[in-house]
Write a structure and sequence with these properties.
Structural class: mainly alpha
Radius of gyration: 24 Å
Helix content: 55-70%
Strand order of the largest sheet: 1-2
Mean pLDDT: 79
Strand content: under 5%
Keywords: Biotin, Cell membrane, Glycoprotein, Ion transport, Membrane, Sodium, Sodium transport, Symport, Transmembrane, Transmembrane helix, Transport
Transmembrane segments: 6-27, 47-67, 79-101, 122-143, 155-175, 187-205, 234-252, 273-297, 331-354, 374-394, 400-425, 432-453, 505-528
GO molecular function, one term: monoatomic ion transmembrane transporter activity
Number of helices: 22
Distance between the termini: 52 Å
InterPro entries: Na/Glc_symporter_sf, Na/solute_symporter, Na/solute_symporter_CS, Sodium:Solute_Symporter_SSF
Low-confidence stretches: 459-491, 568-618
Order of helices and strands: HHHHHHHHHHHHHHHHHHHHHHEE
Subcellular location: Apical cell membrane
Length: 618
């Protein structure tokens, strides 16, 4: 169907308002004149906008199309992923956020230098940049391609408009503009999905009838307690394998951690993690209900006659349901591209941050504040233009695009393993961290690419249970959704390496992060573990001492590998005056002193570091 003038108006309004938010923050407040303001919003944000921004960052257009397609094809088993959100957000709130926030860092990878050394920091930074640069072009291009195929919406006009608007408001308004546009775009996403569900359910007799018919057709799944990790979706795969996927996104990913660090205090950062939990559940419910309504609607009003990819079917459904309601198709397109805008703007800002803090500043220690801010803005602009270039490259990749998409998921697990190795195992040394990360990446690419090649090479065979095979119609967006929500199960049981490659994609993060930890610990023990006294206790979260808090102090000290955790055994109902040393004006961490006026951040004071412990527990 063709768009009407009202539809184009609503879509244009989304872009104009997003750009207006960027201009507002470019011309108000501090006018983005400092690195602290541009990259961290002056650490002034409340928990609610941060929570909605956390939600929007990885709620891309791929998920808006992919999850309903998953429910349409395989039923509601995927809905159990919501069980993983509890631990997947509770652990970051009480483990990762306190460590990162109290170190007063800007880039997540600064932690790696404090815990290990500068080399490990650079390895982590380069891995993250590689991951995000490949991903951001695809996440812009793929939904535009699907939209073009279904509605005739001009492909490159959409790509260029979205890319340029996103680049402008990110470059002009900094992180504060990104967060507030995320809030606006999240509301648009909710409105678009809700409109589809309400109108679609009304067209087929109400939500009660949708649920009843879906149940009759076997689309309402029960709890599958099969522990086999090679089965694509079971309760354990989704509820526990999903925890590691959530930790790789909400625990250590720079785009998310940067939002925690923009909070006005640690309590607000923790509250943002709690607040995003119900929001995630609502988003998951809306996507799953959309899939069920689409399933029933397609049974009674067939949408297409020929073969079509699942994500395109979602768009056909939306356009057919909303065709008699001017403006609502435009609202859903705005919803779809809000997902792209929020994800891409987060990528620009986080890439500018890690490049500035991890690659530029360490080599230019005399860089003035004004010049550093200018470079940060230029980096955001540069990454925006690079995103458009990657979108063009995506259009030419063909079959290789599937592997490029898969890289985003492959890299998250090893990075999670690297941070867990440093935070939970004081004996780990820099050599173990580097070798562990490389081993984790090698394992991730081996399993991921092996699964892809195996499924593509099966002549005429059905794809494996977690296959990332390219869909037969060659649609790139379908390939993207297929990577995240893999297709149908194979009719025959694989053996040998085929069995290894058929590991459920939901266990990828757990498998790869465990590889990093195991290899990192082995190498550390072989090359000489780090002595506990040499480890900065602020970079360690003492898991075993806190879980086994009933043990005598000397045993807990032994479990902590000899790391000197000050007063960890003392009951502490309130912070004492001494402990409040860490909470000095402007958020200066203990043991730090301000740089010169023209510089951003802080340097370590001479002499032994002063540590102030604030207990955090589940």
């Amino acid at each position: 169907m063709e768009f009407t003038a009202i539809d184009y108006t609503i879509f244009t309004l989304l872009l104009v308002l997003s750009l207006a938010i960027g201009l507002f923050y470019a011309l108000s407040g501090g006018r983005q004149r400092t690195v602290q303001e541009f990259l961290l919003a002056n650490r002034s944000m409340g928990f609610l906008p941060v929570a909605l921004s956390l939600l929007a960052t990885f709620q891309s257009a791929v998920a808006i199309l992919g999850v309903p397609a998953e429910i349409y094809r395989f039923g509601t088993e995927y809905w159990f992923l919501g069980c993983s959100y509890f631990l997947g957000l509770l652990i970051p709130a009480h483990v990762f956020i306190p460590v990162f926030y109290r170190l007063q860092i800007t880039s997540t990878y600064e932690y790696l230098e404090l815990r290990f050394n500068k080399t490990v920091r650079v390895f982590g930074t380069v891995t993250f940049i590689f991951q995000m640069v490949i991903y951001m072009g695809v996440v812009l291009y793929a939904p535009a391609l699907a939209l073009n195929a279904v509605t005739g919406f001009d492909l490159w006009s959409a790509v260029l408009t979205i890319g340029l608007v996103c680049t402008l408001y990110t470059t002009l308004g900094g992180l504060k503009a990104v967060i507030w546009t995320d809030v606006f775009q999240t509301l648009v996403m909710f409105a678009g999905q809700l409109a589809v569900i309400v109108v679609g359910a009304q067209r087929v007799g109400g939500m009660a009838r949708v649920w009843r018919l879906a149940e009759q057709e076997g689309k309402i799944s029960g709890i599958d307690l099969n522990p086999d990790p090679y089965v694509r979706h079971t309760f354990w795969t989704l509820a526990f394998g999903g925890v590691f996927m959530m930790l790789s996104l909400y625990g250590v990913n720079q785009a998310q951690v940067q939002r925690y660090l923009s909070s006005r205090n640690e309590r607000q950062a923790v509250l943002s993690c709690y607040a995003v939990f119900p929001c995630q559940q609502i988003v998951l419910c809306l996507s799953c209900l959309t899939g069920l309504v689409m399933f029933v609607y397609d049974r009674e009003h067939p949408l297409v006659t020929g073969p079509v990819s699942s994500d395109q079917l979602v768009l056909y459904f939306v356009m057919d349901v909303l065709k008699d309601l001017p403006g609502l198709p435009g609202l859903f397109v705005a919803c779809l591209f809000s997902g792209s805008l929020s994800t891409i703007s987060s990528a620009f800002n986080s890439l500018a941050t890690v490049t500035m803090e991890d690659l530029v500043r360490p080599h230019c220690p005399g860089l003035s504040e004004s010049r550093a801010t200018l470079f940060s803005k230029l980096l955001a602009l540069g990454y925006g233009l690079l995103c458009l270039g990657m979108a063009y490259v995506s259009s030419m990749l063909g079959p290789v695009l599937q592997a490029a998409i898969s890289i985003f998921g492959m890299v998250g697990g090893p990075l999670l393993g690297l941070f867990c190795l440093g935070m939970f195992f004081p004996c780990a040394n820099p050599a173990g961290a580097i070798v562990g990360l490389l081993a984790g990446l090698a394992m991730a690419f081996w399993v991921g690419i092996g699964s892809l090649v195996s499924s593509m090479g099966a002549a005429g065979g059905a794809p494996a249970a977690n296959s990332t095979a390219r869909p037969p119609d060659g649609n790139i967006t379908a390939a993207l959704a297929t990577t995240l929500l893999a297709p149908t199960a194979a009719p025959r049981s694989p053996t040998g390496l085929q069995k290894f490659y058929s590991l459920s994609y939901m266990w990828y993060s757990a498998h790869n992060s465990t590889t990093v930890i195991v290899v990192g610990l082995l190498v550390s023990l072989l090359t000489g573990p780090t002595r506990g006294a040499a480890v900065d206790p602020r970079t360690i979260y003492p898991v075993l001492p806190r879980l086994l808090c009933c043990l005598p102090p000397k045993y807990r000290q032994w479990l902590g590998c000899g790391v000197p955790f000050p007063a960890q055994d003392a009951a502490r109902p309130e912070l004492t005056t001494t402990e409040k040393v860490a909470r000095v004006p402007n958020g200066v961490a203990a043991g730090c002193v301000p740089r010169d006026e023209e510089e951003q951040g802080y340097v370590r004071a001479a002499g032994p570091p002063a540590y102030a412990l604030q207990e955090t527990s589940f």
